[in-house]
Design brief:
This is Thiolase-like protein. The protein is of the alpha/beta class. The protein has one domain: Peroxisomal Thiolase, Chain A, domain 1. The chain contains 17 helices and 10 strands. A 10-stranded mixed sheet has the order 3-2-4-5-1-6-10-9-7-8. Helix 4 packs parallel to helix 5, helix 5 packs across helix 12 and helix 6 packs across helix 12. The longest helix is centred in the middle third of the chain and has 17 residues.
Length: 462
């Protein structure tokens, strides 16, 4: 697969804490915080941004404009994005494509969400849900499973059935799901942005209230409020602004949607996007120059879409980091955590960190960017930069949404990366990779447009 266009880099990123959905923050102020942190990180004002994509699922039209107008009303194209749980990465995908095409040199992707407590539901009960066919298909497939009929809310039921299919095909059990969930909750203890930092043990995970036959409460991602932002730029822009000390290259990126196999394959794993993820991962590694099936051993750290522990289990093989029948064995070996072959979800993953739909994918890119800068502190994956190649290992991001879309990104330090000098930590006044602080009006005034002052900023609540 020939990759067209110029190289692209994440030069700035920012994140809010992901919190319980209690209506304590607006999407405007969360978006302003994440955007301000990303601009401070990159040492830019909003005037440098040539276009923006803003992702959210639960919000009125033009919510993206409302959030960004706090930084300036500069007339740039602002496009609002909704792609279910992969919304944030889809916004980044669009921003990245414009940079790679050469149409712009600097683009911003912002994602935020203000959610309601409890399981996901529709905001439009007067019409059929776009994922109704997926729900119907997974229930039909339960008849062919040894475990039989399941129960519980639609989303966890779909992913639980996918886990059950894996168990019946390859082995493994709920014990493996508990190990995955406990691993993620332990990782989250080191993440101040995380919604839950309890560090639940495997036994506590198993003893938590049952959501369905396969999943307990602590194996499921919570609904959350939060925001995240990434700024993408061309290589010329990186050099012109002296960002060689923190720019991380988006080596490859792809977005994949469903094929007929999702319904025709008689597979609960296919219903939740196993094949979609596999095709997307194969495209990304091919884009990066690897031959079929190769390149995974050069990945050191991964943020993947563990909306439920069962999805993390089946995603290992879909990404190609193990054979299809070895995901539960990878868990047993500890090859998904510190000291193993890969560090998967060092942030705590969706299960612990939280899952504000529009922000989730951009938050994943925030964490992997910080890993590859070697700024992640207590979350830092070891041995990423050992070996002859000073660029070190790759970071992999996987973000998926039912209905459906999968976005996968492969990041790495560029060959010109050179730590030292003033960087985002100095500009923010602290290391925002693992310190979570709010922004001030003074921070916003540093980065807001100098060409167009915005009335709305005067009404921003920080």
């Amino acid at each position: 697969m020939k990759v067209k266009g110029q190289r692209s880099f994440i030069i700035g990123c920012g994140c809010t804490a992901f919190i319980k959905p209690r209506g304590l923050r607006t999407t405007e102020d969360m978006g302003l915080e994440a955007g301000t942190k990303a601009l401070l990180d990159a040492g830019l004002t909003y005037d440098a941004i040539e276009t923006a994509f803003v992702g959210f699922c639960y919000g009125d039209s033009t919510s993206g404009q409302r959030a960004l107008y706090n930084l300036g009303m500069t007339g740039i194209p602002i496009t609002n994005v909704n792609n279910n749980c992969s919304t944030g990465s889809t916004a980044l995908y669009q921003a990245n494509n414009l940079v790679k095409s050469g149409l712009v040199d600097c683009a911003l992707a912002l994602g935020f969400e203000r959610m309601s407590p409890g399981s996901l539901g529709t905001n439009f009960p007067d019409r059929p849900s776009p994922i109704a066919l997926f729900n119907e298909r997974t229930k039909e497939l339960e008849a062919s499973m040894t475990a039989g009929s399941n129960f519980g809310p639609g989303a966890p039921r779909m992913f639980a059935n996918a886990g059950q299919e894996y168990f019946e095909k390859y082995g493994g059990s709920i014990e493996h799901l508990a190990s995955i969930a406990s691993k993620n909750h332990k990782h989250s203890v080191n993440n101040p942005y995380s919604q839950f930092r309890n560090g639940w043990t495997k036994e506590q995970v198993l003893q938590a209230p049952k959501i369905n036959n396969q999943l307990t409460k602590f194996m499921c991602s919570p609904t959350s409020d939060g925001a995240a932002c990434c700024i993408v730029a061309s290589e010329d822009f990186v050099h012109a602004h002296g960002l060689e000390n923190q720019a991380i290259e988006i080596v490859a990126q792809a977005l994949e949607t469903d094929q007929p196999l999702a319904f025709d394959g008689r597979s609960a794993m296919e219903v939740v996007g196993y094949g979609m993820t596999k095709r997307c991962a194969d495209k990304v590694f091919e884009q990066a120059g690897f031959r079929e099936g190769e390149g995974r051993d050069q990945v050191g750290v991964i943020e993947l879409h563990d909306c439920f522990a069962s999805n993390e289990l089946i995603t290992y093989a879909a990404l190609g980091i193990c054979m299809p029948d070895e995901a539960h064995k990878l868990v047993e070996r500890g090859d998904n955590t510190y000291g193993g072959k890969y560090v998967v979800n060092p942030s705590g993953g969706l299960e612990a960190k939280g899952h504000p739909l529009g922000a989730t994918g951009l938050g994943m890119h925030f964490y992997i960017t910080m890993q590859l800068r070697d700024w992640a502190g207590p979350m830092q994956a070891p041995a990423l930069f050992e070996g002859a190649d000073k660029r070190g290992k790759y970071g992999l991001i996987h973000n998926i949404g039912i209905g459906g879309a999968a976005v996968i990104s492969l990041l790495r330090r560029p060959e010109f990366y050179k730590p030292g000098g003033e960087d985002g930590r100095i500009r923010l006044g602290y290391n925002h990779a693992y310190e979570c602080r709010s922004v001030t009006h003074a921070d916003v005034y540093k980065v807001k447009s100098k060409k167009s002052s915005a009335y709305v900023l005067e009404h921003a609540k920080l």
